[in-house]
Amino acid sequence: MIPIVSIVGKSSSGKTTLLEKLITELVRRGWRVATIKHNIHGFQIDHEGKDSYRHKKAGAHITVLSSPVQLALVRDVDHDYSFAEIRDEFIRDVDIILAEGFKVNDYPKIEVNRSELKRDLFNKKEDGLIAVASDTEIDAGVPCFDINDVKSIADFIERGYLL
């Protein structure tokens, strides 16, 4: 089963920036990485006037956009899919999934926190918190990494979920 590690934190904490750096570092080490980005407000990958947009608007339940280098699937769903459902139904041929956007989930979490935002951690160890990435030392009963020390965070993920 493909392991899932969730990068969580409050808005503007630096989750996406950390995730980008972690992806780059893990791929550099030879790992195949998938990501899941959750958006509670919904999203649209196609735009009005485009053929695939017109297909969906006409009532297609599934629309696939295909090119020689990319494939995207737009599918109507009847509920907010869990990480496990997304992994089991759609993700193949990777070593790890890094997820962003679900603050509450059943998977291991690394919480991003910046002192300038003056916010408490959202998660605790009993919530699945496995580490903190911050610009200040935080005692949460789990390892606390400097938010800019991506190699150490990648080492931690590698030891715990890939090796």
Describe the structure.
It is a single chain. By secondary structure, the protein is of the alpha/beta class. It folds into two domains: 4-40 and 80-162, 3-Layer(aba) Sandwich (Rossmann fold); 41-77, no CATH class. It is built from four helices and eight strands; from the N terminus they run βαβαββαββββα. A six-stranded parallel β-sheet has the order 2-5-1-6-7-8, sandwiched between helices. Strands 3-4 form a two-stranded antiparallel sheet. Helix 1 crosses helix 4. The radius of gyration is 18 Å and the shape is globular. The mean pLDDT is 92.
User: Which whole number gives the mean pLDDT?
Assistant: 92
The CATH H-level homologous superfamily of the largest domain: P-loop containing nucleotide triphosphate hydrolases
What Rg is obtained from the alpha carbons, in whole angstroms?
Answer: 18 Å
DSSP strand tally: 8
Question: What's this, in brief?
Answer:
The chain has 163 residues and is of the alpha/beta class. The protein has helices spanning 15-28, 51-58, 83-90, 150-162; strands at residues 4-8, 33-37, 62-66, 71-75, 96-100, 109-113, 129-134, 144-146. Helix 1 (15-28) crosses helix 4 (150-162).
